[in-house]
Amino acid sequence: MLTEANNQSLIETAAGTRMGELLRRYWYPIAAVAELEEKPVKRVRLLSEDLVLYKDLSGNYGLVDRHCPHRRADLSFGYPEECGLRCHYHGWLFDKDGKCLEQPFDDMVDSTSRYKDKTPIKAYPVEAKAGLLWAYMGPQPAPLLPDWEPFNWKNGFVQIVFSEIPCNWFQCQENSIDPVHFEWMHANWPLRLKGKTGPYGARHTKVGFDEFDYGWVYKRVREDTDETNPLWSIGRVCLWPNCLFTGGHFEWRVPVDDTKTLSVGWFFNRVPKDREPYVQNSIPYWIGPTTDPKTGEWLTNGVMNQDFAAWVGQGEIADRTGEHLARSDRGIVMIRNRFFEDMETVANGGDPKATIRDPKINNDIPLPIVGKKQFVEGFTREQLMSSSVFDNVTPTRFVFQEGQPEAIKRAYEDAMGLKMDDDHGISDALSGIRRVTKPDGSPA
Ligand code: FES
Ligand SMILES: [Fe+2]
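^ thats the input. predicted complex w/ FE2/S2 (inorganic) cluster below
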């Protein structure tokens, strides 16, 4: 249980708040590279600030204030020029660093006018990596955008999924260090949703949490496994500050503001050896629905949809003054304490956890990964089809989120050389998730 003041300090995202300042020391994925190829200007809200992301005609990315400093027009209606974004109202032009390059009428009537020097716009750096566009909103010099090892894996089909979640990001991230929920929410609940009453999945008998440079590893032993199982000996990763990394995919919980989160999923599927070499020219993205358009009910078939339902169920902002933490919640206490400590560190001018500044370190950074060998070295089609090497789920279904578009399914099928199940309902696929894994990460 937290005091109201501590609960409040954990959830704040705006500049000038303690957590808001801490969060401004990290990079956030805010769009797909492919998205800006289709439409070069995008409205973005990040850390309680309204912004506009764009790609100019020279290929530079910019992230600027939503409102023009002239008379506050909405720059999401702006149009990209050779260099920068031009306001659609009176044509003022701003570059990616926020400099005002042109004020067309003033420049016309007085070619020596330097008024534009007085009207810069707020601007933040943007970098492209792994098919995503990332923003940094903190003080300079910016830390490096992490180069996690899976971003450099070869022969993989990657897809990116965005979903807007109407609750605070921190309760989403607490889910990244919560092994026991897996049993009840991802194994047993789907069973009940399908009208069955059993048998329930293997129960957790032990959980563990180890801190490392870039987050925490959470570990589990269930009644059908022991400590030789990679889910104990390697574990899954609560990646700092706002991500869950399972091996085959990342899930970032991007803080939009105090009551909204952008879920960004990045999913890697290694193609079977008979499809190698495989090069993906462009990483596709899609928007994952969260509710049923007919009923307005939350979707509950996809693994992450189940998570979303839990997060929003906690309220827009989880009231931690009313909770009763138990033995399964040690990891949650640990990460809260680390955030409290890091708020202090940042307030005192220091770098918080997992800030990377050395380019030698920021090169293919290894992470704890169950089944790493297979992700890196590949496997045969027989291995792929007879087992579930990616996150222990079947390769013929996308189990993580509902609503995968047909075009993405077809692209995946082409890449993998397989046919996805005709029944695109995905709850059955969770049987794969319950599968027991051997020490090398392959299914038992
Ligand atoms: S409001 Fe943007 S140029 Fe006038
Ligand atoms: Fe989950």
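The chain has two domains: 28-136, 149-433.
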